[in-house]
Amino acid sequence: MIGYVTLGTNNIDRAAKFYDALLGEIGAKRMMEGDNFIAWGTGMTSPGLGVIKPHNGLPATFGNGTMVALVMDSKEKVDKLYKKAISLGAIDEGAAGPRGENFYAGYFRDPDGNKLNCFWMKS
Fold first, then answer.
1. What is the pTM of this model?
2. Domains of the chain by start residue, with CATH
3. For strand 103-109 and strand 91-98, is the pairing parallel, antiparallel, or unpaired?
4. What DSSP letter does each residue of the chain carry, written as one string?
5. Nearest to 26, CA basis, from 95, 81, 69, 67
6. Which residue in 47, 56, 58, 60 sits closest to 5, CA to CA?
7. pLDDT mean for each 10 residues of the chain (123 residues)
8. C-alpha angle 38-41-47 in degrees, rounded to nearest 5
């Protein structure tokens, strides 16, 4: 299964500020960092999320069709994290709400244009 995901950034300081605040909402904190990357997580055995300046020195770009999904354990937490992302300057890609009977999600893009969602799924 997925261990971690990295998203490209052209501005590590802006990305750090955005993800410190956003991922702090769900209990994640910085686990590793260097001059060109930062990784957040809730523990070494849980999946993590990082931002990185591309190794090849070219500008970071977002992938068309690429999305990172952050699992929540309630609809209320989806609403809260989605609203936090928007308050931090994320671009709305679909407000939090039901998507069918058993799926509830909110979609947004971070300051670099990377697409994320937060979701809850009825089991």
1. 0.92
2. 4-53+66-121 (3.10.180.10)
3. antiparallel
4. ---EEEEE-S-HHHHHHHHHHHHHTTT-EEEEE-SSEEEEES-TTS-EEEEE--TTSSPP---TT--EEEE-SSHHHHHHHHHHHHHTTPEEEEEEEESSSSEEEEEEE-TT--EEEEEEE--
5. 81
6. 47
7. 92 98 98 96 94 95 93 97 98 96 97 97 91
8. 110
